[in-house]
Specification:
The complex is a heterodimer of chains A (293) and B (416).
Chain A (H helix, E strand, L loop, with lengths): L1 H31 L6 H19 L3 H27 L4 H23 L15 E3 L4 E3 H23 L1 H11 L1 H6 L5 H22 L9 H16 L4 H21 L4 H18 L13
Antiparallel strand pairs in A: 1-2
Chain B lengths: L1 E4 L1 H14 L17 E7 L10 H19 L8 E7 L4 H13 L5 E4 L3 H14 L2 E4 L16 E3 L4 H15 L3 E7 L2 H16 L3 E8 L9 H6 L9 E4 L3 H13 L8 E4 L4 H7 L1 H4 L3 E4 L7 H14 L5 H20 L4 H8 L3 E2 L7 E3 L6 E2 L2 E6 L12 E7 L1 H4 L10
Parallel strand pairs in B: 2-3, 2-4, 4-5, 5-6, 7-8, 7-9, 9-10
Antiparallel strand pairs in B: 1-3, 11-15, 12-13, 13-14, 15-16
The chains are: A mainly alpha (293), B alpha/beta (416).
Membrane topology (chain A): Multi-pass membrane protein
Family (chain A): Belongs to the binding-protein-dependent transport system permease family. LivHM subfamily.
Subcellular location (chain A): Cell membrane
Chain lengths: 293, 416
């Protein structure tokens, strides 16, 4: 029983990373119709930024947790203004290629400066112990990640459903033309939303630094699964991306724990689930079929 | 990329030789050397996961060997025109295959060195066999190079899965704990390592109480399922043996510490680890971990002297792969010098059965039966942070494993 609880907990922790990354992808796709392939690279930059801040300037984890998302968010906004918005009127493929190219450039720049070997990043001392849950001990840092990510998702949900900004973003996501017809300036919100999505990726990166290998390819490895998560949740669906993120984390953890004798299964389970969901609901679990244009 | 060592000196030598009308096996005037020169080819990973443990710094090590050889023999050297060709095989067997052919056929390479990644290494062995050109493998682990895929022109220089398993598995079982839980990446290298370790552990009186193949590549980066399982096995394992490499090893170790397995009485043994891995994880994260090392830079004064020279050129301390590349290049040049020709068959003849002693090879012997280069290996343990007094000096050698015991007996699968 305690084994099951631990595996579940771990699945939720992995899921928290998927959820944060997928949430960013979902809002960006919803607002801009851009499949941001560079999301994984920004996650990597978040982790690397935390590492560089710590080693070069002695900036602790807690400060990095604020600096990196904000900094990367601003960088994302600049990027959106400089290049991405120029391509949004064209086929989505163009921005997909652009962000794919960006990914390669960012990865190689980091590789050039810091090499491919992973860089060390210690767990902040405040969170380095473990918490007893009666049935089992759990590393404090993982508890923190789970709590922090859950809180963040709730906050984003609150902003989207209870504030005027959120209303505009949701409306613009679902029916951009209709929203414009009501006299709302959708364009104004495009850049900040892109920056916000990138900021979330950076935040996930900082959170990952103490428990994952910090190297230039860390985002590339993860992003494939995150895309599967977004597809399962329903492209552009904000609730769907979060639910699917946590769900896929659980499926992976349970798969590894209880199907370890069938490595083929535990390795491909995410994509099997994705294929199954697409057959059943082509728009994803929480997605809505696009109205024919 | 082409680096020329002592072009000026070489051309001077050619003029001098011509002036004297040749003479002696060293002259090269009678075409003892193809193209009157020796070309060494370093084929390895220059940008990916293994580029720091070998990569460009292996080229630096080979250049050091050329400089040392030239300095040692001076005018008596078989040639002063020794150059290095390098290529990036990106750890892909097909790329390794075509680059190796290009090196032998078009770049005039006499010897290919390094070639990490077992699948790529085996491809290059096939090319060497077909072209009848020499190949010293350093970076790859598979015992097939001296087993069913062995051939007359291939030598396996630094280490292999048997050496790692035998050293770490046997000695750790005897000295640290009998019950093991083995975690391995589920592909050829990991499965090979798991088998070799299990055999070595059982032979030493230990027991494998659990084993799991983790997805490879592990896209989630999470190994917690396995790490949580380990301390709850019955009987409880004394040692977690991880066969993961590179970034996956980093993930396993980070999470091993996160779940405080050492405090729960489960020690850590690592199948394959390089100095660069310890550097990126920091000794604090690995303190007490045992592994088998083919060579350690701060083992004795001789190694240290080499490491100092290497650091002046490369800016970092050498891994065992760097030292082995140096040694392999040097021993090849010595063999050519002794044979007076770079004809592959003549050089192979000179190398077979030769005993060698240099900075990398201690009690070294180039076995004639399977072309395994045997030498002393070392059981190493990562020091606690408090004992680390200088950068890169992260381990202490617990035990020297004598050359005769460190490697397996020649395999019956190998027919040269």
């Amino acid at each position: 029983m305690s084994g099951f609880a631990q595996n579940t907990f771990n699945g939720l922790v992995s899921g928290a990373f998927y959820a944060l990354l997928a949430l960013g992808l979902a809002v960006i796709f919803g607002m801009l119709r851009v499949v941001n392939f560079a999301h994984g690279a920004f996650y990597m930059l978040g982790a690397f930024g935390a590492y560089v801040l710590l080693t070069e300037a002695g900036v602790p984890f807690w400060a990095a947790l604020v600096i990196m998302p904000v900094g990367l968010g601003l960088l994302g906004m600049a990027l959106e203004r400089a290049v991405i918005h120029r391509l949004t009127r064209l086929d989505p493929l163009y921005n997909f290629l652009l962000t794919f190219g960006l990914t390669l450039i960012l990865q190689d720049l980091v590789k050039l400066r810091y090499g491919v070997q992973s860089s060390p990043y210690a767990t902040p001392s405040l969170l380095s112990g473990s918490v007893n849950f009666g049935l089992f001990d759990f590393p404090t840092y993982r508890v923190f990640i789970l709590g922090f990510a859950a809180l963040l998702c709730v906050a984003v949900w609150w902003v989207l459903t209870r504030t005027r900004i959120g209303m505009v973003v949701r409306a613009a996501t679902e029916r951009p033309d209709l929203t414009r017809a009501f006299g709302i300036d959708v364009g104004r919100w495009v850049t900040p939303v892109f920056g916000f999505g990138i900021g979330l990726a950076g935040l996930a990166g900082v959170l990952a630094a103490p428990m994952r290998a910090v190297n230039p390819l860390m985002g590339a490895d993860l992003i494939i699964v995150v895309f599967a998560v977004v597809v399962i949740g329903g492209l552009g669906s904000i609730f769907g991306s979060v639910a699917a993120g946590f769900g896929i984390g659980l499926v992976q953890a349970w798969g590894e724990a209880y199907l370890s004798h069938f490595p083929i299964v535990s390795q491909t389970i995410v994509f099997v689930v994705m294929a199954g969901v697409l057959l059943w609901r082509p728009a994803g679990l929480f997605g809505r079929e696009e109205a024919p244009a | 990329m082409r680096r020329t060592v002592g072009v000026a000196a070489a051309s001077a030598a050619v003029v001098l030789v011509a002036g004297c009308g040749g003479g002696g096996p060293q002259s090269g005037g009678d075409q003892k050397l193809t193209g009157d020169k020796i070309v060494l080819g370093v084929l390895n990973d220059q940008s990916g996961a293994y580029s720091e443990l070998s990569g460009k710094n292996s080229v630096t090590a080979v250049e050091m060997a050329i400089a040392d050889f030239t300095a040692k023999y001076g005018d008596k050297a078989v040639t002063k025109d020794i150059t290095v060709e390098t290529a990036d095989h990106q750890n892909k067997p097909d790329v390794a295959n075509s680059k190796a052919q290009e090196m032998y056929d078009r770049k005039g390479v006499d010897l290919i060195l390094d070639v990490p990644t077992s699948s790529a290494a085996l491809k290059v062995a096939d090319v060497a066999k077909e072209k009848k050109k020499l190949y010293f493998n350093i970076g790859a682990a598979t015992t097939d190079l001296t087993g069913k895929s062995c051939n007359r022109y291939t030598f396996h220089y630094a280490y292999d899965t048997y050496m790692l398993a035998n050293g770490t598995g046997k000695t750790t079982t005897e000295q640290i704990g009998k019950n093991w839980y083995i975690l391995y990446p589920n592909y050829a290298f990991g499965q090979d390592m798991e088998k070799s370790f299990s055999t070595a552990i059982t032979a030493a009186g230990g027991k494998v109480v659990g084993r799991d193949g983790a997805p490879f590549p592990n896209t989630s980066g999470d190994f917690s399922t396995f790490l949580l399982k380990a301390p709850n096995l019955n009987p409880k394992p004394d040692v977690l043996g991880t066969m993961q490499a590179g970034a996956e090893l980093v993930n396993v170790v980070k999470q091993y510490n996160e779940f405080k397995l050492r405090e729960k009485g489960v020690g850590l043994a690592v199948g394959l680890m390089f100095l660069t891995d310890i550097h990126s994880l920091t000794p604090a994260a690995l303190a007490g971990t045992t592994y088998t090392d083919a060579w350690y830079w701060n083992f004795d004064a001789k190694n240290r002297e080499f490491a100092d020279r290497f650091q002046r050129k490369a800016g970092t301390r050498p891994t065992f792969a760097h030292a082995a590349n140096y040694s392999a290049a040097l021993q090849y040049l010595e063999a050519v010098q002794a044979a007076g020709t770079d004809d592959a068959d003549a050089v192979v003849k000179g190398l077979e059965g030769k005993t060698v002693e240099d900075v990398f090879l201690r009690n070294g012997k180039i076995r004639a039966e399977d072309h395994r280069v045997v030498h002393d290996a070392y059981l190493a343990q990562v020091k606690p942070q408090s004992e680390v007094t200088e950068p890169w000096d992260y381990v202490k050698v617990l035990k020297t494993i004598p050359a005769a015991e460190a490697f397996r007996a020649p395999s019956a699968d190998c027919k040269l």
